[in-house]
Specification:
The protein is of the alpha+beta class. The protein folds into two domains: 174 residues, Aminopeptidase (3-Layer(aba) Sandwich); 54 residues. 28% of the residues lie in helices and 20% in strands. It is built from eight helices and nine strands. Strands 1, 2, 3, 4, 7 and 9 form a six-stranded mixed β-sheet that branches. α1 runs antiparallel to α2. The model has no long low-confidence stretch (mean pLDDT 94).
Length: 269
């Protein structure tokens, strides 16, 4: 049985958490890993919520971290409703798929509810977070700041009726949009050298699909196999040429390459 505990992050944890974040996201980026730099900057921004900045420890070892910032929904009349966003949510690779990230989320959701926030809104993996209770933002009439909506844009109401009568455009701290590759590379010099991860090419999937399914995926212009994990199974299954056999192939190829994809969780996770 796991001896899992949670506590607030302390200043003494900062560097270790940044290293943890780096490890957790090193193989999940299209180019340069910048999540550890993002954690550093989020702690320094006005929207940071220190009351929800938690680490998870397994048998006393720091294995996961979650960080929150304030965000908001602005309705058509200009009324503002305060919400939260989290991320990065980091779990050391060797401890992933054990329920630690989910447990850390639910622990902090309970704390956020006590702090009287309405909801948590994120941009995340569209077939994973619904298993935790997230729903598509479109269901609530919530769009991005530029009026768009898509499956990775998701909402978790913190209590029944939390968003009744609330809709509008969503705004989060600009810090999420201001990181540059140059900044990330410079910041990364503070950590031990690490071989750059090269994402698996999309051809690893295309070569296994039937012609019609291959054409459907090619039209998405995905740069790597990793990119398909940003698309929900609902989105992919709606493409012309994609059938159940093609969906099964996508699940298999992504799983074989250490990636999660699909609405149904793989049996080994």
């Amino acid at each position: 049985m796991m001896n899992l505990s949670f506590r607030l992050e302390a200043p003494a944890d900062y560097h270790a958490v940044e290293e943890l974040t780096r490890e957790a996201f090193w193989k999940t980026n299209m180019s340069v890993c910048d999540e550890h730099l993002l954690v550093r900057r989020l702690r320094e921004c006005p929207s940071f919520v220190p009351e929800l900045d938690y680490v998870a420890l397994l048998d006393g070892k720091l294995v996961a971290h979650i960080i929150y910032t304030k965000s908001k929904i602005v309705d058509d009349n200009g009324k503002v409703y305060e919400t939260l966003t989290f991320g990065p949510l980091s779990v050391l690779p060797e401890y992933q798929n054990k329920g630690i990230g989910k447990a850390l989320m639910h622990h902090t959701f309970a704390q956020a509810k006590k702090l009287r926030y309405h909801a948590v809104i994120i941009f995340g993996y569209p077939d994973y977070y619904p298993r935790v209770g997230f729903r598509r933002a479109a269901e609530f009439g919530i769009t991005t700041a530029d009026g768009k909506t898509f499956d990775p844009f998701m909402v978790y109401p913190l209590y029944d009726g939390a968003l009744d009568g609330i809709s509008g455009r969503y705004y989060l701290d600009p810090v999420y949009e201001t990181l540059t590759q140059e900044d990330a590379l410079e910041f990364d010099k503070q950590f031990p050298p690490k071989e750059k991860h090269i994402p698996v090419p999309i051809n690893a999937l295309l070569d296994c699909l039937e012609p019609e399914a291959r054409k459907a995926i090619q039209k998405l212009n995905l740069p790597s196999l990793l990119a398909i994990t940003r698309k929900s199974e609902r989105e992919i299954s709606a493409l012309e040429g994609i059938d159940e056999a093609a969906l099964a192939v996508i699940r298999t190829i992504t799983r074989e390459n250490g990636l999660r994809w699909g609405a149904a969780p793989p049996k080994n996770l």
